[in-house]
Amino acid sequence: MNAILYPLCAAVAWIGLLFKIPALLGRDRGHAAAAVGCFYLFMGLTFTISDPRVWAMIGSASGVPNLALVLSQGCVIGVAASQLAALTFWEDVPERATRRVRGQVIAFGGVLVAMVVLFTLADLTEEDTTTAAMRFAGEGLYSVYLMLYVTAFAVAEYFIAVRCFQYARVVDGRWLRRGLRLAATGAVGGLVYCAVRYADVVAKLVDLDPQRWEFLARLGAGVGGILALVGWSVPGWAPQVRAVRERLRRYRAYRDLYPLWRALLSANPDLALEPNAGRRAVRDLDFRLHRRVIEIRDGIRWLRPYHSADVADAGDAGADDARRAHAEAVTIATALAARAKATVPASPSPTVAVPDPANDGSREETAWLVRVARAFATLETS
Question: Which of 61, 168, 191, 197 is deepest in the core (most CB within 10 A)?
Fold first, then answer.
């Protein structure tokens, strides 16, 4: 599992850091953004070092068995410290937040120094690239080292989970709330990892095999890590995702409006600013979509004298949107046929009211005309 899950986590972390670099290099970057950047850096280092192949290379190059163990777990402490720092900078004024973060850094720094001393004294002479954290649990000074590391990490993960869940209930922005909940859930995964490591020490004392639940530690670390990585990145990439989705929505609307627009244009070529416009558009999509909506609306208004009283009532206020759109499409198709025959009914009936952009907004009007255009296209193919 280490050889698959951990490289995946490392890749997500390094990609996330890569996307953060432009913001980190900007002059207007804040302390919280820098802390989140450190979080991605430490995450990338943690899971890269924990890859069994990298682990073995570090041991071979340094001549120190399991050196990767203290390096990766030291980076885990950095992961926790950077998340706490980001949350602190978010919730407090800069001066007070800076003092609080400085105290946190000193505390975590003390933990790291103690970990290095205990690891050196423990003298783990046999290299183990996949199960070292579990295998040596319960053995002498390594048990003290492990308990110090796990306790520091567990306390940090607890506060991260609690604060992220709390902030998710009060902050504005749907995507920010989702990101905080994902980060909090990732911290819960870290707590699962810590619980397993506590169980490893106890298991050695009561002669149980910790290998039976080791998969929980790897899942907690791996899945929890990915959730935390995604959660902390959501506020950054969610606006881009929204922009892409909005552009796709406009593109589909422009394409779907084409059959109705073309039919109206065939009856009256003067309606269009660009009569040769096609079904698709890439450049100036907003302007082209706006023009297409206006031209269709003008065409429907131009056809009103040709609306037949024999057409079923399309203005039934009790009808649902699909039925109203279908009725409007039938009305337009019938009016186009009457226009082609150059016949004008003596008593024209009113058509379904197209939403007024002054009241509903252009997006609502576009959505309504897209419904009508799709119904019209269905009439043409039936």
Answer: 197
What does the buried/exposed string (b/e) look like for 229-243 if buried means 16 or more CB atoms within 10 Å of the residue's CB?
bbbbbbbbebeeeee
Alpha helices in 28-136 (DSSP H): 31-50, 52-62, 67-91, 94-122, 132-135
Cα–Cα distance list, 35 to 32, 71, 256, 265 (Å):
5, 20, 46, 58
pTM of the model: 0.72
Stated as kind and residue range, the H or E segment containing 203 is helix 174-205
Contacts 24+ apart (CB under 8 A), 26-32: 30/89, 31/85, 31/89, 31/94, 31/97, 31/98, 31/101, 32/85, 32/86, 32/89, 32/90
Residue 24 in contact with residue 54, Cβ under 8 Å? no
Integer-rounded Cα radius of gyration of the chain: 32
- Residue 213 φ then ψ, to 5°: -120, 15
Cα(194)–Cα(146) distance, integer angstroms: 10
Question: Tokens 């953060």 appear where?
Answer: 20
DSSP 3-state assignment of 331?
helix
CA distances from 94 to 34, 86, 89, 90 (A): 13, 11, 7, 9
Domain extent listing, the chain: 2-240, 257-381
CATH fold group of domain 2-240: Rhopdopsin 7-helix transmembrane proteins (1.20.1070)
* Residue 129 Ramachandran class (φ > 0 left, ψ -120 to 50 alpha, else beta): alpha
Dist. CA 218–CA 238, nearest whole Å: 29
**CA-wise closest residue to 236 among 26, 7, 3:** 26
Written as tens digits, the pLDDT of the chain (382 aa) is 567 888 889 999 999 898 888 778 876 678 888 999 999 999 999 999 999 999 999 999 999 999 999 999 999 999 999 999 999 998 888 899 999 999 999 999 999 999 999 999 998 888 888 888 888 887 889 999 999 999 999 999 999 999 999 999 988 888 889 999 999 999 999 999 999 999 999 998 888 888 889 899 989 999 999 999 999 988 777 777 788 888 899 999 989 999 999 999 888 888 887 877 777 776 788 888 988 999 999 999 898 888 765 554 545 544 577 888 888 888 888 888 888 886 555 444 444 444 444 344 477 888 999 999 999 988 877 6
Give DSSP secondary structure letters for 54-68. HHHHHHHHH--TTHH
